[in-house]
Design goal:
The chain is mostly helical. It contains 6 helices and no strands. It has one domain. Helix 3 packs across helix 4.
Length: about 120
Amino acid sequence: MYRKEESTPLAPSNFELPFEGKLSSDNRWVMMASLIPWSEFESEYASLFSEEMGAPAKSFRMALGALIIKEKLGISDRETVEQIKENPYLQYFIGMNAYNSEAAFDASMLVYFRSRK
């Protein structure tokens, strides 16, 4: 199942951090996030899923963002999850609205992200 979320791009200054800091708009992940037309691909991605059956899928931005992180950093699936868990810039890149010290998804999800075409 896929639940399409209508959301406007979040400004880096609105990303919630536990220590009340702000993300820098000149960070490479923030700049790259602004270059990718996430919403243009969302409808096509959503069409791969049933609207009524199954568990809700992760967003297109989270799926593609995680794969980009993995490839750009040249790391394993498990290390990708750990890096995202520890880095607020990576969490922003995959579309999260606030820092969370919990893993956004299990490393095994990257197998599914890769298989979706």
